[in-house]
Fold:
Amino acid sequence: MMTDNELLLAISDMMDKKLKSELQPIKNNLKNVKNNLENVKNDIKQVKLFQENTLLPRLDHIESCYTDTYNRYKNYADKMEAAFDDIELLKKVVSEHSQKLQNIS
Structure:
C-alpha cells in the first residue's frame, strides 16, 4: 500500500506527463507562429527596401517632372487666353476679308 506522499508524487508525475504531452503541440504551434512572424518581418523589410530604393526615387522623379511642367505652363496661362482672343479676332477678320473678296469678284 502507498503512503499519502507516494500517492501525491504519483499523481503529480501523471499530471506532469499529461501536461507535457498536451503542451507539446501548443509549443510546436507557437514555434510555427514565431517562424511565420519572422518570415513576415523579412518580407516587410524587403518591401521597405524596395520602396526606399526603387519606388520612392521614381515617384520623386515623376513629381519633379510634373512640377517642372506645371511651372512652365502656369506662366503662360494668361498668355493662352490672349492667344485665344487673337485667334477669334483673326477668324473674324479672315471671314470678313473672304466676304469682301467674294463681293469684289
In short: Residues 7-74 form one domain. The mean pLDDT is 92. The longest helix spans residues 4-74.
